[in-house]
Each structure stands twice: as structure tokens, then as C-alpha cells.
Amino acid sequence: MRYLVLITSLLFFSTCHNRPQWQTGDLIFQDLDCPLCDAIENATRGFQNKPVSHVGIIVIQDEKIFVIEAYDKVQIVPLDTFLKRSPKILVGRLKPPYRKYIPKAVQKAYRKIGLPYDEVFQLNNEKYYCSELIYDIFTDENDRHLFDVYPMNFKNLRTGRFDSIWIAYFDKLNRPIPQGRLGCNPAEYSRNPKIEIIYTTY
After folding, report:
1. What spatial distance separates the first Cα and last Cα of the chain, rounded to whole Å?
2. Which domains does the chain have, with CATH numbers?
3. What does the pLDDT look like over 89-124, one tens digit per residue?
4. Distances (CA, A) of 40 to 108, 147, 186
5. Burial class of residue 21 in the structure, from the number of CB atoms within 10 Å of its CB (0-12 exposed, 13-18 middle, 19+ buried)
């Protein structure tokens, strides 16, 4: 009996820690470690209440795996470069009824490479923050969005107040904190019922 338990435990460990079989169109969510990332995670809740502060889309070129993301700008980076920032990831895969969106999303993502980062978190300004890029590229033939936008929250979920870094960040931009403005965040998308989390490292 002890041997059966040991074998079962080893199989479970192996399943959890093996890399997924990547597919173009997978969404890769990440827990980044930086003061602003922590403020994002304080104001949002990810899959199984995990902290999530970033998201990109997987594309496979010539059997090599890349991520298209809005980070310093919209860019394409090797998966290994993405993981060097933080190994704490979730991988989400669109459920079968929604996979038809992927080819168009990938084409749109490539066309947006080089566009600037959206530091003010505003829709429809030809700049992108990470989840805004995902929102914008996943559309059907009639340009209807697969994912939703909703009133954004910047307040710490525990304290009900803005973390000081948000106050300083938007003061530097000479803008009010866009509390309640329509937008999106990676944590919310990690819980979206249209995707299945197939892999996690934390």
C-alpha cells in the first residue's frame, strides 16, 4: 500500500511540474514581482485566488515558442525570456467552442508589435497594457470581442484604499486614478469561463 501511495505521489508531482504541450493561442499568465505588480495583485483576484499581474499570448514559429505581450511595448519575446522575469505562471487554453478565434487573434497580435505601452490604462488609444492587448485581438468576423471589459478597480481588496504606489504613479502622470473606468486585468481573465487553466507552477 505504501508503494502505491508513493507511486501515485510521484506521478502527481511529475504531472504538475512537466511543461505543457504548448499551442499557439494559449494565454500565459504571470505573477511578476515589482511594486506596481504587487499593487495590481492587491486589487485583483486570479484563478484560485492566485496573484496574477501579467498576461501574453503564445505563438509557435518554426517549432520555437514565443510570447506576444504588452510589456515595455507590444513585443514578441522567446518563452525563455518571458520566464526569466518570473517562473510563476498559469497557462490558459481556450475551450473548444472559442478556438476559432485564435487565427485572427494571432494575426492581429503580430500587426500590433511595436505599438507603445498604455501607461494610463485607457482603451482605444493605439497603446496597450497587457490584458488590453488580449481583449483587443480576440474578436470574431464581425469584430465582436470574445472577452469583456468592466469597471476597473485600483483599490486594495483588503484595505479598501488605494495603495500609495498608485497615488504616486498617477500623480507623476498628472492624471486621476481611473477607478471605475472600463478596462480589464489579467487576473480577471485567468478566471474567465471561456478558458481552462491547464498548467500552473504556483
Report:
1. 29
2. 20-200 (3.90.1720.10)
3. 999 999 999 999 999 999 999 999 999 999 999 999
4. 26, 19, 9
5. exposed
